[in-house]
Hints:
It contains 14 helices and 2 strands, in the order H-E-E-H-H-H-H-H-H-H-H-H-H-H-H-H. The chain is mainly α. The chain has a two-stranded antiparallel sheet with strand order 1-2. A hairpin with a 5-residue loop joins strand 1 (32-34) and strand 2 (40-42). Helix 3 packs across helix 8 (210-232). The two termini are 25 Å apart.
Amino acid sequence: xxxxxxxxxxxxxxxxxxxxxxxxxxxxxxxxxxxxxxxxxxxxxxxxxxxxxxxxxxxxxxxxxxxxxxxxxxxxxxxxxxxxxxxxxxxxxxxxxxxxxxxxxxxxxxxxxxxxxxxxxxxxxxxxxxxxxxxxxxxxxxxxxxxxxxxxxxxxxxxxxxxxxxxxxxxxxxxxxxxxxxxxxxxxxxxxxxxxxxxxxxxxxxxxxxxxxxxxxxxxxxxxxxxxxxxxxxxxxxxxxxxxxxxxxxxxxxxxxxxxxxxxxxxxxxxxxxxxxxxxxxxxxxxxxxxxxxxxxxxxxxxxxxxxxxxxxxxxxxxxxxxxxxxxxxxxxxxxxxxxxxxxxxxxxxxxxxxxxxxxxxxxxxxxxxxxxxxx
Length: 376
């Protein structure tokens, strides 16, 4: 079935805003600005950037409220973005928001240490941990297709990781920095998997509109992280992570001063906030208008865009091993989500395949709530 113009628009919006989100965050990491003590320093404030991401998620709640208000006079609203249960306790989403907070902050620290393309590729490891946790917590059966997908995802990520370890960074970061960044991103995916399994176990049955759920997670995440920024302002940071003048975990005042002293840095932060909101809207709409597997394919296209732009602007050098690793990773994702022909993959197993989870890598894990929509 051919896509409508609206579906094409949603697909382009998802790829574009998703790519802008990662690229604008990395752009901010690479910029220099005068800090609170008058020194020109690189912008290294991952927790402040994470709070900006949650602010973008909060815009999803605002969008939901606007759409809901516009359809307030309809007895049975036809807009799929607001269809669902309104009688729920928002605090059911608090644990998911806390998983999101820890995972996103960890990923942003990792992004500061490695390539933007590696950041995007390593996020694909989430399917490994979701599959394992789902089998333990939810009692799901891992099918042969999923095993094939997991093996290829691990192989693809191993190729990418080894490539990062072999080649020195062209952006002034050492081999240890790249490896540490990659490992932090993988660690974040373990936490993201906990978030996704929690949402499927406790949230999916409530039939909460996805845009509203993402918005509430943004509210909780932003509120808690704002308080933590005050705490982090006074806690000494470990060696190699004390990049601000105070040598603490996070000096949000220094970060705000740097943003105020560099208009391009402000533009990058605004790009993160706005792109997160539109990316969530587009991603949820793609899932509802088309399918979750379409969303996964578009997310893979986003990885290609990020990798291509990173090479084009000389943020990293081209290594053919990255291309091989990415190809193997995509093959694994397709196998896991049942997108391969039977001759390439395994014979269809109807009983098990119907219980398959379709995984979309969350960007904030900003779209992690999609599991509650896709896989009940």
